[in-house]
Design brief:
The complex is a heterodimer of chains A (about 260) and B (about 400). In chain A, the strands form 2 sheets. In chain A, strands 6-7-8-3-9-10 form a 6-stranded mixed sheet, with helices on both faces. By secondary structure, chain A is an alpha/beta fold. Chain A has 7 helices and 10 strands. In chain A, about 45% of the residues are buried. Chain A starts with a strand and ends in a 13-residue tail after the last helix. In chain A, about 35% of the residues lie in helices and about 30% in strands. In chain A, a hairpin with a 2-residue loop joins strand 1 and strand 2. Chain B is globular and about 60 Å long. Chain B is mostly beta strands and about 400 residues long. In chain B, helix 4 packs antiparallel against helix 5. Chain B has 5 helices and 19 strands. In chain B, the strands form 2 sheets. Chain B has a 10-stranded mixed sheet with strand order 1-19-17-15-13-11-9-7-5-2, covered by helices on one side. Chain B has a 9-stranded mixed sheet with strand order 3-4-6-8-10-12-14-16-18. The N terminus of chain B is likely disordered. Classes of the chains: A alpha/beta (about 260), B mainly beta (about 400). At the A-B interface, helix 2 and helix 3 of A face helix 3 and helix 4 of B.
Chain lengths: ~260, ~400
């Protein structure tokens, strides 16, 4: 039974205006097979949590720890974390010029498994996953995220989630910018990945909309870099009705 | 992040500060085909670096080649053997010399004025064949050379013109492609770090002939290869490809000119380059002229640059000039993109280690050109050479 533990996590970020404290002591434990929704207003530190778990160099951990089955994640490089079983579905996936989706997927799969996948089953797996996500096969020969629409980029993230089979996935606002059809397709992909591999999911979202399609076991409300409240799925229902107002936060204009 | 431009063709008269008179015509811009040309170095003014053909080049680094005295003796040349390809030295007076084109800059004219004999690579026979002509260890004194590659009608071959070791070389290469011939010429620059190489290639494509011209520049302090192709007869076809990897302190330049001068001619120009390290520079100028006679022309040119580190500079200037409205298509594109930390993070977040991530991106980017060479052995060797360039960071 795998477990991802976040203990008393304090994270700073360097900006032009100096050091800013974003996370101020976050505690969160995710077991294999659980879905945790992290909700909160803009600027509350949700994305910082996601990127810190993945190891983005912009964020500095000043206190606390992240453990994957007892292993210190913070000592691992970005690629080591991925190979250890962590996955981040990004809010804004970047374009990679000159690298086709096919080439990228195979290289990533090989890196994560430590050996190249057998060609026949791999091609079949890729085709099947793309079909499930309603991705045209022509995608395979396009450069990663280059010229993709917002929805196509998100599907491509979930495609990787399905194929790379991580133990824990952080989904950073995967729902943002998706129309309802795309939202359903993407949610089905996440649910399928969970059903197939039993992965644990940290679902970061601003809105409750995606929670109609991906049912969380736990809901955590982030405010000002801390968990302000947590509970079961009923907490999300309450947020849908009341919004974040009762946490007395003024939403900043931009992150 | 990718910055793409789909820029307009020639600068307009207004951009030059000309304004039409209220009672007169617009001052015309000189067309590309009217550019001054001469084989005599004295016909060109000394190079200052302000001339349009030199303004992107580090002219002080090779003043000896543009205005100094050059050694015109035969180059040290070795070649592989292939049936149907014959090498010989021909005198300056040979009637083939000057049939493909004439110098448009002072370095080319200086080389033309001083070479002793020209190397003739004569291709005959319809069977496919490959020959590699290597110029190696030319030394550090300034030299001039002239080469004529002549493909007989309906002949077929791949000719690799390779440079290794030291060189300070100004040269002209004429490529004469006979009717129905199918010729590939690869100009492969793998000179040492201190070398300077200024080359002008002139190709003349006869009726229904095809030239694939590939410039691969990897080694050398300053390498400037300017290929100019004259699609002189109907049905001619040129694919002009280029590949360069500019390291710290390296200047790799190519000014490509395609002149559509007959009906139903086709051209595709694709140059791709990577830049890595402080002071790594590349220059690409792509001029395409579709002349009045060139009805039914199909043309497209593009340049793509991949910037791997800070401190580099890529200049990319596509120009398209069209004198007839009756064409199939003409387009151009230029894009210079950066391999940045966010891309690295993305690939690493999928388990791919940093060095492999870099290799993946550059290999994918440049392989598109390498794969079009059509010689498996050379393609493989170039891919390893590119790997070595990447390791050198």
């Amino acid at each position: 039974m795998s477990v991802l533990e976040i203990k008393n996590l304090h994270v700073n970020v360097e900006t032009d205006q100096g050091t800013r404290e974003i996370l101020r002591g976050v505690d969160l434990t995710i077991n294999e097979g659980e879905i945790h929704a992290v909700m909160g207003p803009n600027g509350s530190g949700k994305s910082t949590l996601a990127y810190t778990i993945a190891g983005h160099p912009k964020y500095t951990v000043v206190e606390g720890e992240i453990l994957l089955d007892g292993e210190n994640v913070l000592e691992m490089s970005v690629d080591e974390r991925a190979r250890a079983g962590l996955f981040l579905a990004m809010q804004y996936p970047v374009e990679i010029p000159g690298v086709t989706v096919t080439n990228f997927l195979r290289t990533a799969k090989t890196a994560i498994d430590g050996q190249a996948p057998s060609i026949r089953s791999w091609v079949k797996d890729v085709r099947e996953s793309m079909g499930n996500l309603r991705m045209d096969t022509a995608f395979a020969e396009r450069n990663v995220n280059e010229g993709f629409s917002g929805g196509e980029k998100k599907r491509n993230e979930i495609l990787q989630l399905e194929l790379l089979k991580p133990r824990f996935a952080v989904l950073d606002e995967t729902d943002s910018g998706l129309d309802v059809d795309a939202l359903k397709v993407v949610s089905e992909g996440v649910n399928r990945a969970k059903a197939n591999t039993g992965l644990g999911i940290l679902l970061i979202t601003h809105y409750t909309r995606i929670l109609r399609y991906i049912k969380p076991d736990f809901v955590h409300v982030f405010v000002a870099g801390r968990i302000a409240e947590q509970g079961g799925p009923e907490l999300a229902d309450r947020l849908e009705e009341e919004g974040y107002d009762r946490y007395h936060v003024a939403e900043p204009a931009a992150q | 992040m990718t910055v793409a431009t789909q820029s307009t063709a020639m600068p307009t008269a207004e951009q030059h500060g000309f304004r039409p008179h209220s009672d007169g015509p617009i001052v015309p811009v000189q067309t590309r085909s009217e550019r001054f040309r001469s084989t005599a170095v004295a016909d060109f003014a000394p190079v200052t670096g302000r001339e349009h053909e030199w303004k992107y080049s580090p002219v002080a680094a090779f003043a000896d080649l543009t205005s100094g005295e050059l050694d015109g003796a035969r180059l040290e040349v070795t070649s592989t053997d292939a049936a149907g390809v014959a090498l010989s030295w021909i005198p300056r007076e040979d009637e083939r010399i000057g049939t493909a084109g004439l110098p448009e800059d002072r370095a080319a004219a200086n080389a033309w004025s001083t070479f002793g004999e020209a190397l003739l690579v004569a291709v005959t026979g319809e069977d496919a064949k490959t020959v590699t002509v290597t110029r190696s260890g030319l030394g550090s004194a300034p030299r001039a050379a002239h080469t004529v590659i002549e493909a007989a009608p309906n002949s077929r071959a791949l000719v690799v013109l390779r440079g290794t070791g030291d060189a300070r070389l100004a040269e002209n290469v004429e490529i004469v492609v006979g009717e129905g011939a199918n010729l590939t010429v690869v100009s492969l620059q793998e000179w040492t770090d201190e070398s300077v190489h200024l080359a002008s290639h002139f190709a003349r494509i006869a009726r229904d002939a095809k030239l694939k011209h590939i410039v691969v520049s990897l080694g050398g302090k300053v390498v400037r290869v300017n290929p100019s192709t004259h699609l002189a007869e109907q049905g001619g076809d040129v694919e002009a490809l280029g590949l360069y990897f500019s390291d710290a302190g390296q200047h790799l330049e190519q000014q490509v000119f395609v002149h559509h001068d007959a009906p139903h001619t086709r051209s595709r120009v694709t140059y791709k380059g990577a830049l890595q390290g402080e002071g790594a520079r590349s220059v690409w100028i792509g001029d395409v002229l579709i002349g009045n006679a060139a009805t039914g022309t199909d043309s497209y040119e593009q340049n793509r640059n991949l910037v791997l580190t800070d401190g580099t500079r890529a200049d990319s200037v596509p120009n398209l000039e069209i004198e007839t409205g009756d064409i199939e298509g003409a387009g151009h594109a230029s894009a210079t993109g950066r391999f940045d930390d966010e891309q690295l993070f993305y690939l690493q977040a999928r388990g791919i280690p940093e060095d492999e991530a870099r290799r993946l991106v550059v290999r994918g980017f440049l392989a598109e050109v390498v794969q079009q060479i059509g010689d498996a052995e050379l393609e493989e060797r170039l891919m390893s050479a590119l790997e070595a360039e990447l390791q050198g960071s």
